[in-house]
Design brief:
By secondary structure, this protein is mostly helical. About 65% of the residues lie in helices and about 0% in strands. It contains five helices and no strands. α4 (about 50-70) runs antiparallel to α5 (about 75-105). The longest helix has 29 residues, at about 75-105. The radius of gyration is 24 Å and the shape is elongated.
C-alpha cells in the first residue's frame, strides 16, 4: 500500500528519516575499518584471540619499559616500589603471551 509504514514483502521500515538515524551508531566503529584487522591477522598469522593477547603483551612490555624511566629520588622504598611495578607489568606481559600461545591451538598454521 502506498501510505504503509512497513513493506508488505520484507516487513522493513519504509520511513527514510528513521533509517538514516538507525545507521548513525555504526559510525562510532569506523576506526575498526582503519585498522584493517584482517590484514593485521594475516601479517602475524594468528587467530583473533591470539592476536589480541599478543598486542596486550606488547603493551605490557612497553609500559614496563616506561616505568623504568620513572625518576626515583634517594629514597630506597620509592626505588623498590618502581621495581615492583616493573615486575608486575612484565608478569602481565608474560601471562598475555602465554594466553596467546594457548589460544593459538594445534591447528593454526605457522
Amino acid at each position: 500500500m502506498v501510505g504503509a509504514a512497513f513493506c508488505h514483502i520484507c516487513g522493513g521500515n519504509r520511513h527514510r528519516a528513521e533509517r538514516a538515524t538507525a545507521g548513525n551508531w555504526s559510525r562510532s566503529f569506523d576506526f575498526l575499518r582503519a585498522i584493517e584487522l584482517g590484514k593485521l591477522k594475516a601479517w602475524f598469522g594468528l587467530p583473533l584471540p591470539s592476536l589480541c593477547a599478543f598486542l596486550g603483551g606488547i603493551v605490557c612490555l612497553v609500559v614496563a619499559l616506561a616505568v623504568g624511566f620513572t625518576d626515583v629520588k634517594d629514597n630506597v622504598s620509592d626505588f623498590e616500589a618502581v621495581q615492583l611495578w616493573r615486575i608486575q607489568w612484565l608478569m602481565a606481559g608474560c601471562a598475555a603471551f602465554l594466553i596467546g600461545i594457548l589460544f593459538k591451538g594445534p591447528k593454526s598454521e605457522s
